[in-house]
Amino acid sequence: MCMVIDAAREVTGWAQVVARVLVESGSAGHLKPRGAAVGARLLAQGRAGISTIFRVRAANEPHEPAFVFEGRRMTFGEVDRRIDQLASGLRRRGIGRKTAVALVLHNRPEFFEIEAAMSRLGGSAVSVSWRSTPHELAYLFKHSGARAVFFEHDLAPAIEAAQRECPDLPAANLFAVGGDAAPHHGYPSLLASWPDRDLDGEDGAVVIYTSGTTGRPKGAVRRFGTGQVLGFLAFMERVTLKRGDVHLCVCPLYHSTGLGFASMSLMMGGCVVIERDFNAERFLATVARERVTTTALVPTMLHRLMALPDETLARANLDSLRVVLCGGAQLPATVAARALDRLGPVLYNFYGATETGLVTTATPDDLRALPGTIGRALHGVSVRLLDDEGRDVAAGAVGELYAKSRMLVEGYHEDDDATRSSVRDGHFSVGDLATVDAEGRYMIVGRRRDMVISGGTNIYPAEVEAVIEAHPGVSQVAVIGVADEEWGERLRAFVVLREENAHLPTVAAELKSWCRERLSGPKVPREWAFVEGLPANPTGKILKRELKDWEGDVVRV
After folding, report:
1. Mean pLDDT along residues 357-365
2. How many domains does the chain have?
């Protein structure tokens, strides 16, 4: 009986979420009979793949813009037809159900078309960084079982080198996108087919390889369905996305942040403006020109935006900008404060991972009250902070963050051991350590593998980094532990200064004094390395393993 009551409450709770989102977004009442019929048919069959967005919106409003890319505008009707043509062309080449294709592309509309076509065929689309070396590409192609590769035309040499190491990947299945790369087939050759009629498989998967900050990257397998849709709606209950929004996509689409929020905007009736990459001044110009209302950035991008001269930001026309989503890496409190001061109450910090989907969101008010917070858990998400024995920690104590929701991935492709080691009681962890306050606001304090133990004291580098970043002369900082005979480990801070040509020993002494006023003794770095920049992956996560082998000068104070 209790289970029945709980199930009824869950259904009621989600119905309220859906109703609130439809009203707040302005979508209620705009679904036409044809669009409603197509959506209802696919959902009734349990089909809610990424291509459903284009199928429903093409039926509902075929002439509305879906994408703006390099001056070209593409409607939903046009994109939906191209997806069918692409799916048919792939099927004629033996690519279909349970088949994987790899995407090694810059940001462009074709990324969505390929993802959607593979969904309609019941296959998998594997997202791969275009920055990968031939050796890395060969590993990813083999590990994912890719039978075809779509690649940026100017990456042909790297793709060819990788393909030579992959006996199961035919050279005839390498497709160049965005330009010629003879002798390989061009993307348009796949669009020449008359579309088949039975193209609503919608049980495909997206495989996104994690950034691999340690060891080999792992492929997280995500299938789109009702759970994914509900996860999106839970997020939109906290952050209002509206029908008619213009979303600027600058995060790489091979990562969950770029693909997820662009898809969310398309689902709610928005148009996506796609930029190949991020440039701070071009970002401002695009927002003004396209009247952008929403965007998603990783903290590194927001940092670069806030580093622009005050007069540059003052001249920019950002009146249309209503929502700036930030995530993918830890957001420094100082950067969040500057963004709120300069952009107004538009910044939302979220926490999630490729493996967990969206977990928490912090509103502008949350960020003002607790700078750097990742906010509160979303509807339908269970968050637990656990110690090494799997016990829940007390409020204010540090624990490893585990999350459970309808957006969890199925696991890691061909890596059951990694999947099992990441799960406790149905909750998934990617190794982040966090605390929670009395208001239910979570704060990331570091990663399990980054924790430093000095003289028996557990030190979370994120806490030390936050103090150092608050110094007006510091632009960026990363803190790591290095071996120490007496203490086991000692702290070394890598600092990017705002001004060059400073007297470094004096700066180091000043920073040490700054830390001593705000941190207990073991948390004060004893070594300082001043660098021009910090190594980071495309999502802005600092690659601390590359700092472990530092051979430059170190100032000891």
Report:
1. 96
2. 2
